[in-house]
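Input C-alpha cells:
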C-alpha cells in the first residue's frame, strides 16, 4: 500500500479543503480492506476521494483519506453478459477509451469524464436522456468494503437490498472497491447543436424532449438566447467535427475565450449583461457524428462552482422561467449559462430521479465570484417545486428535507445503521444530509 503521509486536500473548484491525519493509496481490494480495519482500530473516520469534482464536502475528512490513484484498471470484459468490471478509482476517460478500443460503450454519460467511476456514481452523476438514465443506473454489480473490513458483493441477485441503495451510496455504506457496468456494442451519435430563443425552447420543451434520445439546452442569463443540443443514434458514417472548427468551438469558444470573458465579468460585474448578449450569439449551429463519448463529453477547463436541482419534469419550464425572472429583477450578474437536462425515473433509493421522470436545472458561478446570493435565491425556487439537489453540488438541504423529498430515504438510513452502526464513514456532510 502506497503512502501514509498527510497534506491538505483540495477539491477541483478549490472551495473545499481537508486536512486528514493520513492518506493511503491502496492498490487492491485487500489493501483497501486493511486500510479500513486499521482506521477503525485507530479510532479514525474513513473517506475515499475521487478526483475532487464534487462541490460539497462529501469526501472531506480529518481522519483517513483514501486516494484512488492505484486502485485503477479494467478487471474483466464479459462479452456474453455484456458487462465491464473496473476498479473503483478508474477515471471515466480511461474506461471510455478502453471500451472504444474494444468496440463497446456505456449507453449514456455525463459531459465530464475526469471523475473516477466510484466518485461519479456515488454522487449520482448523470447526462441527459429520454430513456437512458444516470451512470449509476447502468451498474449491474459492485464490491463494497464495509465498516468491519469485509468485502460485500452486491447485485440484483446477491445482497439485493444493499445493491438497491449502494449504487448511489454517498460513501455512507462503505468504500466501493470495484464496479460492474452494463455495456453495449459501440454506436454512433449524430449531434445537432443549434441556437434557439428562450421562448421557443421553453414552449416546445416537451416535444423536443419526446423527439430526441438526448436533449439539453443552455440559457444565457441576461438574454433571451439558448443553445440546444440534440444527440440521436445514427447509422453513420462517422463525421467528426473538423479539427479547426472543433478546436474553435470546444477549446477557444468554450474554454479559452470563455475564461477571458468570466475573468472580465468577475473584475467588472457591470459588463456581464453586455458580454452575455454577444457570447450567446457567438456559437453557431453545427452537426457532427461520432462515437458516444466523443459526443457526450467535452473538456471543461474554466473552473466554477455549481448547484443543480432535480425537479419533476413537468415542473421544469415553470421553474426555469422563475429563475429568469429572478435574474432580471435582482441585479445579480451571472456570466455562466444555466443548463437544463432530463432523466427517466429510476429505482435507486437516493437517485435524484428515484421514482419520477426528472429534469435538471444547473446554475454555475465562475470560481472566485460570490455565488451565495444567486444560489440561495435559485434554491428557494427549486425547493418550492419539490427539488432534489445533486449530492455532489452546492446546496443547503438537510436530513429533515430529504426524508420528505425521497420516499425511500428511511430504507437507505436503515441500511446505513446496519452496515455502519459506529459511523466509521461519517463526516460533517453526511451528518447534515443523512442525520446521525
Amino acid at each position: 500500500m502506497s503512502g501514509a503521509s498527510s497534506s491538505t486536500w483540495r477539491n477541483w473548484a478549490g472551495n473545499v479543503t481537508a486536512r486528514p491525519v493520513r492518506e493511503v493509496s491502496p492498490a487492491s481490494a485487500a489493501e483497501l480492506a486493511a486500510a479500513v480495519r486499521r482506521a477503525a482500530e485507530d479510532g479514525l473516520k474513513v473517506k475515499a476521494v475521487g478526483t475532487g469534482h464534487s462541490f460539497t464536502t462529501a469526501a472531506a475528512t480529518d481522519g483517513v483519506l483514501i486516494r484512488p490513484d492505484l486502485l485503477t484498471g479494467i478487471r474483466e470484459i464479459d462479452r456474453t453478459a455484456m458487462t465491464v468490471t473496473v476498479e473503483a478509482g478508474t477515471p471515466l476517460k480511461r474506461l471510455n477509451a478502453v471500451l472504444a478500443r474494444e468496440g463497446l460503450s456505456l449507453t449514456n454519460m455525463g459531459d465530464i469524464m475526469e471523475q473516477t467511476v466510484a466518485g461519479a456514481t456515488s454522487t449520482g452523476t448523470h447526462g441527459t436522456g429520454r430513456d437512458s438514465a444516470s451512470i449509476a443506473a447502468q451498474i449491474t454489480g459492485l464490491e463494497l468494503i464495509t465498516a468491519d473490513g469485509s468485502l460485500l458483493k452486491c447485485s440484483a441477485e446477491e445482497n439485493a437490498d444493499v445493491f438497491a441503495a449502494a449504487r448511489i451510496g454517498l460513501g455512507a455504506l462503505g468504500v466501493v472497491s470495484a464496479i460492474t457496468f452494463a455495456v453495449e456494442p459501440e454506436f454512433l451519435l449524430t449531434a445537432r447543436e443549434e441556437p434557439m430563443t428562450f421562448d421557443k425552447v421553453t414552449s416546445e420543451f416537451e416535444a423536443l424532449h419526446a423527439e430526441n434520445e438526448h436533449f439539453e439546452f443552455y440559457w444565457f442569463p441576461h438574454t433571451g438566447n439558448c443553445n440546444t443540443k440534440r444527440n440521436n443514434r445514427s447509422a453513420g458514417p462517422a463525421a467528426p467535427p473538423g479539427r479547426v472548427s472543433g478546436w474553435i468551438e470546444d477549446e477557444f469558444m468554450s474554454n479559452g475565450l470563455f475564461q477571458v470573458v468570466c475573468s472580465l465579468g468577475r473584475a467588472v460585474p457591470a459588463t456581464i449583461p453586455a458580454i452575455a448578449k454577444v457570447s450567446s450569439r457567438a456559437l453557431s449551429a453545427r452537426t457532427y457524428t461520432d462515437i458516444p463519448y466523443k459526443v457526450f463529453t467535452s473538456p471543461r477547463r474554466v473552473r466554477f462552482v455549481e448547484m443543480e436541482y432535480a425537479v419533476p419534469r413537468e415542473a421544469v419550464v415553470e421553474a426555469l422561467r422563475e429563475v429568469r425572472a429572478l435574474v432580471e429583477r435582482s441585479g445579480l450578474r451571472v456570466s455562466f449559462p444555466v443548463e437544463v437536462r432530463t432523466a427517466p425515473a429510476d429505482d435507486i433509493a437516493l437517485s435524484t430521479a428515484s421514482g419520477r421522470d426528472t429534469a435538471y436545472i444547473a446554475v454555475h458561478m465562475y470560481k472566485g465570484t460570490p455565488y451565495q446570493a444567486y444560489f440561495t435565491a435559485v434554491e428557494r425556487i427549486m425547493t418550492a417545486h419539490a427539488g432534489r439537489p445533486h449530492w455532489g453540488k452546492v446546496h443547503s438541504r438537510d436530513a429533515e428535507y430529504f426524508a420528505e423529498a425521497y420516499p425511500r430515504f428511511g430504507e437507505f438510513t436503515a441500511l446505513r445503521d446496519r452496515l455502519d452502526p459506529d459511523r466509521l464513514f461519517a463526516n460533517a456532510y453526511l451528518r447534515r444530509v443523512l442525520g446521525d
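The chain has a mean pLDDT of 92. The CA atoms of residues 195 and 283 lie 7 Å apart.
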